[in-house]
């Protein structure tokens, strides 16, 4: 028993043999199969090189597809068998030791490029043949016209020997003569064809102008016409032809006969239909793909205001987990089953289902009652996903998030409709998934704005669009300014000044918070140095301190401590000039590794403040393990003190927090102080410092210097 080949050349030879055996039976060639295999060998070698190349060479793959046409593999089945062979065996025999998933993806792209090259070469060959046939037809037309007047023998030689179908009829449409090629095309005898009327060959797919052109020709108003026409064969199949009909006149110029020249284009048309199908349908599920769906949606949206549409955009929840745990093959089977279920949901006229890619599907319904129809369609889709899908003996629960868009045609483009559906689907996914949401223009606008801000964030930092405002921290005992909190703002070119609530969450999500936070820290430390140089000698309360907010993402960044040290050293500022504020919620359940950077900064002399204290529902015992020196009491505890008399419950809570903090040697800062009565009550309760509009709104650094100077002088 002979062993399987192991070397690259042996594997390539095996692939070439399999390819030639698959394609040879449907190839019109005089070569033997062994000779045909030798002709395919350089093409197989080229495919092997393309599979293992660094970059993807689409032109190389197209050239291989074109070479198939040159090798007379023009039967549509030859392309199908070639693509099947490449799909099944190219990676197996030619990929080498590289990643198989990458090789299969490269193989898939090579197949698409080969098909495109094949179609292009076949089209060029067809055009050349058509030109040749057209020239032959013109020559035949001239010869036939002369033969009718001059020589029956010469006419018969051309008529019978022509490779294209030729028929002659009188002006009433009665067929008088047909040649052998035409009889073969129709599968009928000369006796059956002669005597038939041209008008009997009406076909449902005739172009609207077909018979108008015919009437003009037999009336002598035109000399010829050319079009594509279908004919019914006796066996029930359809014959597609390129038809040229010319008017033959007698010696005096009077119309006498009509001459039809027919080229059989049936196989070429079937190939084009197949290529069109492959280009507009998903290879895995057989559903229409994004291209065909967009064509259909654009047609619906262009139907005018009288037409309405409904669209459901489905994304499977947790599909990545299936791929990661069970493999992509199981994921593909899951997608096929989902596609089948969705297809069964859209069976009414005007409804279609398509796969956009990955685990994203869309369903479209049209008609005057689309508001009710799309709701029913969405309900059918969600119900279709309830039953588990069995894959490799496992019952998988499938859930999906669905975005629904409904409205009149003519108001939005296809891209706008799909974007709205996509946004709505993600809104459903953000709400927990396994649900549907109806599109909301205001929510769409907010999402689009968020996307625009997210996209603009990186360049905004480079262009210097961010700036910092400072809100003073005031000592409640003597009213002196002890420092300020740095609050970053974004001067957006279109939206104006944006507060941190508009862009900090986006920066957190994209990771830009780290460079942005570093920039805020640098600017704030630089400003702290400027304040200390101008104000340090004049204030009995000591030099001003700067408070900078630290996000959870920055807290977990490995470069936090090093960046802070470098910024302080570069600015020549002592660590006690800086206070980093961390929200209580960010430290709930924090382990020792997360707290380690804060401990190191605190040991250096940097103050740590626990921001929004009281909103995180953390265990108060955790305060002993946190390296904080300041509690910033959330404004929700002190709002009841803005009026007199203050809420006694709030007073008790604040008093208890202050007592606890002072017992732990922690200072207490209060946010959101807006009235004098509130400030006085907080002073009585023992709070140390405060900030809020009662003292000053956030503003430029010069304002804080002026406030501090007033406190220092009088």
Automatic annotation (TrEMBL):
Domain (PAS) ranges: 151-221
PROSITE patterns: EAL, GGDEF, PAC, PAS
Boundaries of every PAC domain copy: 225-277
Occurrences of domain EAL (ranges): 450-712
Coiled coil feature spans: none
One Pfam family recorded for the sequence: PAS_4
Residue ranges of domain GGDEF in the record: 307-441
Top-level taxonomic group: Bacteria
Transmembrane segments: none
InterPro entries in the cross-refs: Biofilm_reg_signaling (IPR052155), EAL_dom (IPR001633), EAL_sf (IPR035919), GGDEF_dom (IPR000160), Nucleotide_cyclase (IPR029787), PAC (IPR001610), PAS (IPR000014), PAS-assoc_C (IPR000700)
NCBIfam families per the UniProt record, alphabetical: GGDEF, sensory_box
Protein name (Swiss-Prot/TrEMBL): Diguanylate phosphodiesterase
Gene source species: Streptomyces yokosukanensis
